[in-house]
């Protein structure tokens, strides 16, 4: 199992570097977040052992148990799932990043509940670029006001934007969704927001995301295999 994780992690890193080169980008401009939701702790240990420091989790209870058991390792934990109000305190206490902030109330609670001995919590605003009514994430026109609001909160640090587009097989269609987020990110930067993170791309679409400027891809199954 350890060898499989090591091999698959290396293969994903190689693909990231190859895509970066293919689209005229520096290999080190695209970071890898290993998404470990639904995976056993042994696989996280194997990936960490193979040099992977950043892990993403979606479900708070599952994540807290892993964080507790791996407390002796220098892992950076990212929360990437939907954030409910009653979960913000534990998230603010135990994570370094939250990728899925999509309203003021959640941003305020994360800010207020971030322990003072920890550095500001890194956050991304989740944007719904596919405009499906059922999905989480703010609409494009809501991004700038929410970004300005977040920038006024001292215990959170707005790092960028994140999206989970509707799954599409067609490469050009994948690129189109990611391009929409890239344009929003650029516009915020032109408006004076100091953003360095564009969190987009998963196992099935990270080539398109890298082609469109992703700085952080969130990869689960391509590293760890299918989830329980
Ligand atoms: C599960 C998940 C991923 C990883 O998906 P894979 O298809 O397994 O790579 C990435 N981002 C988010 C927000 C997820 O929930």
Automatic annotation (TrEMBL):
Pfam families: Ala_racemase_N. Its cofactor is pyridoxal 5'-phosphate. This is Pyridoxal phosphate homeostasis protein. Belongs to the pyridoxal phosphate-binding protein YggS/PROSC family. Coiled coil: none annotated. Residues 9-227 form the Alanine racemase N-terminal domain. The modification N6-(pyridoxal phosphate)lysine is found at residue 37. Keywords: Pyridoxal phosphate. CDD domains: PLPDE_III_Yggs_like (cd06824). Pyridoxal 5'-phosphate (PLP)-binding protein, which is involved in PLP homeostasis. The keyword Nucleotidyltransferase does not apply. InterPro entries: Ala_racemase_N (IPR001608), PLP-binding_barrel (IPR029066), PyrdxlP_homeostasis (IPR011078). NCBIfam families: YggS family pyridoxal phosphate-dependent enzyme. GO terms for molecular function: pyridoxal phosphate binding.
